[in-house]
């Protein structure tokens, strides 16, 4: 399909583009840099609204821990600006893309267990609804949330409700130091039990992951790849003396085998965040399973009874990254007997067009989603079908 690209230079032009699409009955695919285009179902639209021209930091108040930027601002620019002041986005988002794409896809990394998700750090938005109405929601402080929390609704909506033009996010001081305890040779169930113990401790754990042997050996860090088996990771962050003291106490409590210092700790958690160990260069499809942490190993074991899969765990066992053969969706979702949901995060476009990429919603939740969609985009102009067919 040949796609006509509309590239506004400001919010007013973005509103004009949506107004034209609405009057012409032409759906729009909402784009930033396009780096998240492979997430969700492919959008069938003859036109794309490219918001990468809406770029630049509008306001940055380091003392107030608040940053406002246009939605097309590259995340590399925002990261560099925050780093100059020793700050960061605490939910540890993946590299690349734009601020709008990050919020719209609702992504978060390993620190989600302690810092929350993109939704928890989105304070305010401006955008254009599918009614071609420019509007703002939220504010610049956490407490300025009344009634319908529009910013949090936009996080994870994948551009189906609003073409975001400006976003305000909460920023936090970046940790001064980081260290990671390594535990060697645990099976999945024992590792998740140990991670649960670490997370319940008073030592403020900010990362908890488990790499089975076949995954650990692919790490770029010799301390992990050379362990000769599975490696369980427990991260501690904060001021240097505090990290050192907590490492000493937790290492003794967990009987950890080794400790990574700051640079190696940062490197291994980038690997965990990006999940590039799984299925690269193969026909495998990549799934993300969100389950109760204690049910993670048993859910994966149920899947392994019928499928040959590779897996590693994050979020204390509550997130399982799974590389599985094509046409595995039904078997994967059938294994979610303890609750949770499965999301297909990497597969060819024809597969994503024919598959439930996101966990199918129960009837009442789907009805609610339709009502929300209709309130923001009654004609289905914005990213139609990106999350669910017909929505």
Molecular structure report:
- By secondary structure, the chain is an alpha+beta fold.
- The chain folds into three domains: 4-173, Uridine Diphospho-n-acetylenolpyruvylglucosamine Reductase, domain 3, CATH 3.30.465; 177-274, Alpha-Beta Plaits, CATH 3.30.70.2190; 285-354, Alpha-Beta Plaits (2-Layer Sandwich), CATH 3.30.70.
- Helix content is 33%, strand content 25%.
- It contains 15 helices and 18 strands.
- The strands form five sheets. It has a five-stranded antiparallel β-sheet, with helices on both faces. It has a four-stranded antiparallel β-sheet with strand order 12-13-11-14.
- It is globular and about 65 Å long.
Task: Briefly characterize the structure.
The protein is α+β, with helices and mostly antiparallel strands. Helix content is 33%, strand content 25%.
Provide key terms for this protein.
globular, 391 residues, alpha+beta, 15 helices, Alpha-Beta Plaits, four-stranded antiparallel β-sheet, single chain, 3 domains, 18 strands, five-stranded antiparallel β-sheet, Uridine Diphospho-n-acetylenolpyruvylglucosamine Reductase, domain 3, 25% strand
Mean pLDDT over all positions: 94
Number of helices: 15
CATH topology of the largest domain: Uridine Diphospho-n-acetylenolpyruvylglucosamine Reductase, domain 3
Distance between the amino and carboxyl termini: 21 Å
Strand order in the largest sheet: 4-5-9-7-8
Q: Hey, roughly how much beta strand do the residues contain?
A: 15-25%
Please give the oligomerization state of what you see: single chain
